[in-house]
Amino acid sequence: MSAVTTNIRQTAIDTIRTLSMDAVQTANSGHPGTPMALAPVAYQLWNEAMRYDPQHPQWPNRDRFVLSCGHASMLLYSVLHLTGVQEVDQAGEPVGQEAISLDNIRNFRQLESPCAGHPEYGEASGIETTTGPLGQGIATSVGMAIASRWLAARYNTAEHTLFDNDVYALCGDGDMMEGVACEAASMAGHLKLSNLCWIYDDNKITIEGHTDLTFSENQVDRFKGYGWHVIEVADANDLEALGAAVEQFKANTDAPTLIVVRSVIGFGSPNKANSHNAHGAPLGWDEIELTKKAYGWPTTEKFFVPEGVKEHFQEGIGARGAAAYKQWQDVWAAYQTANPEKAADLTTFFAGDLPEGWDSEIPTFEADEKGMASRVSGGQVLNAIAKNIPWMVGGSADLAPSTNTLLKFEGAGDYEAATPCGRNMHYGIREHAMSAVCNGMSLTGLRSYGATFFVFTDYMRGGMRLSSIMHQPVLYVLTHDSIGLGEDGPTHQPVEHLAACRAMPGLYVFRPGDANEVAESYRASVALSDHPTAMVLSRQNLPTLCREKFAPASGTAKGGYVLADSDGEPELILMASGSELSLAVEAYEQLKAAGVKVRVVSMPCFELFEDQDAAYRESVFPASCTARVAVEAGIRQCWDRYLGSEGEFVGMDSFGASAPAPQLYEKFGITTKNIVAEAKALLA
User: Fold this and answer.
1) From CA 479, how far away is CA 460, in angstroms rounded?
2) Distance from first CA to last CA of the chain, Å, rounded?
3) Is 93 a catalytic residue?
4) Are strands 229-233 and 424-426 parallel, antiparallel or unpaired?
5) Longest CA span, the chain
6) What are the C-alpha distances in Å from 461 to residues 274, 456, 469, 495, 501?
7) Strand 541-544 vs strand 368-373: parallel, antiparallel, or unpaired?
8) pTM of the predicted model, to two decimals?
9) CA geometry: angle 510, 513, 515, nearest 5 deg
10) CA 548 to CA 557: how far, in whole Å?
11) Which residues are CB-contacts of 388 (< 8 A; sequence separation ≥ 6)?
12) How far is Cα 78 from Cα 75, in angstroms, rounded to an integer?
């Protein structure tokens, strides 16, 4: 059948709409209204504006498109199918099949289909990030824009431009209401990210009804206050106005851009347009038939792609993207000849690898009874590593002096609007946005890190969870890890946070017990390429253990290891992490002197320990030894798998208090004396 109308642009737009309607209805689940409203916006971006090669969707200098309103996922899947985006292998080379096929769309929201209810990174080429939790997508896009500017500042030369891509994010009222979006918008405005464009779908509808129920601020004034350039488009169907708005964005060089687009949710639906009834539920086949009739579409056809539509996209984004990719390849070839050292760095970077010798300067710490806080040793180790990973970039939520995460080596510098080559990010007091921005930087290839006090993972959890879902190696440096931070009191003393972080699938939580365990924890953490890590560090000093007397800290690489052992099979096992490890060692010395066959197990990372084979785990925790005591200044919950039914726990079962750390440890019974008493009671 030929094109439905003589206007191929309108036919292409209506194909996006009808594919979305049919997929949602077939699944009997999903959101049809926004794809129907924003199909012209998606068309204009992809076919007229974006620099993107569907044949090479992992091209480093591609423009990025983020669908922050992830419930409208069929908008993205329809566009990926119609533009012919190809699936690629791990090297970024096409494998000869579409990333999203028509059969995939027919199986929208079904098991094993890449067309999940919300876009999932890694399921198909062209999905730049996982979205769904509102606000996360646009916040992540800020990290992508930061990374693009950083790469340009570090690696472009006067003769060769390798990085100058733009980042587009499509968002709705729900995104705008979320606090993480406010934090991210503020940060983007401060950094003058002129390569960032958010397109706001101003449809004035949420699930409960019209937005005037809850939402009345002036978005134009709000974003101007953030330092953004704001453009208004009165009608989402006005392609010329949309095109002009995007051209204004591209011409702007001193601020991020917000394009406010007025749309009608469920556009074309005779009975459900401009209604919350088009928001979170299928239209119904009868209403779809009426809507298709309004479009001039065959009413009985489902998943219909008219002749000429895919060819139209090939002539647009396909041809334009291929030419841009070819031009970039030519620049890259010349760059490698002219800048061999930088090119060698970038070759490693593009491959997602770490530079050779990245861990060669990690320090070894001498035994010291006084020791140092693990946040202090952590800062030394972080600097030693980052110095040798040129694309390691990060910082703290206004706490760098306390978290010790400032990079101090020559050439590190600060990332600011005027110095986008700096490696020290200053996130401001924006923990939630920090985690999302770290994700965006990581998705662009940087080894990103963010730091704050451990208790504020309460604010960061949304972004941390997405780091894990997407298998991004983001490093979270989390200091002030327990009641040991002292006088700031229970609001700042993390008690349940270790258990909460360890409960997150795929997040590797490190809590090292002395400076050398810190060093080995960082070595193990940075080597992980497909998991985020939480580096949980102390405020108070931790004794640096003598490794001639105790087992080497290299055991940290297995997550848990025998630090000190008995002569013969143990009759008691003491286990601990972090700042309580030294207490377990003191108890070991007393119990050993009393004739007890006791073993101390250091457990800096449960997740790494669980990755070991059963034989190793049994060698550390032999089933025959059931008398076990765990020590940690947090709640018991995550220790039960190692304690068994007969073990005892020395730790917290309440919130903390405001007092000096030594008094708090005494008050809550986390002492050598109490560990010994619990151990003897088990053996009695």
Assistant:
1) 14
2) 86
3) no
4) unpaired
5) 93
6) 34, 9, 12, 16, 9
7) antiparallel
8) 0.97
9) 100
10) 18
11) 355, 357, 358, 359, 360, 361
12) 5
Two structure tokens written together for 651: 């730790």
Q: Each residue of 54-65: pLDDT tens digit?
A: 999 999 999 999
Which entry of 98, 128, 431, 648 is annotated as an active-site residue?
Answer: 431
Cβ proximity of 581 and 593 under 8 Å: no
Taking only the tens place, the pLDDT of each residue in 314-342 is 999 999 999 999 999 999 999 999 999 99
User: What is the Cα–Cα distance from 235 to 213, expressed in whole angstroms?
Assistant: 23
Give the integer Cα–Cα distance in Å for 480 and 537: 6
For residue 499, give both structure tokens: 């258990």
Partners of residue 629 on adjacent β-strands: 574, 648
Which is nearest to 629 in space by CA: 568, 570, 682? 682
pLDDT for the residue 5: 52
H or E element in which residue 144 lies: helix 136-155
User: 């409208």: which residue's tokens?
Assistant: 72
The CA distance from 481 to 510, in Å, is 11
Which residues, in sequence order, are CB contacts of 178 under 8 Å at separation 6+?
A: 134, 135
**CA-CA distance, 465 to 435, in Å (whole number)?**
9
- Residue 481's SS3 state is coil
> What is the three-class DSSP state of 51?
coil
Tokens 């510098």 correspond to: 413
What is the rounded CA–CA span in Å between residue 613 and residue 558?
A: 10
Question: Listing from the earlier edge strand, what are the strands of the sheet with 572-576?
Answer: 561-564, 598-602, 572-576, 628-631, 648-650
Is the distance from CB of 101 to CB of 78 less than 8 angstroms?
no
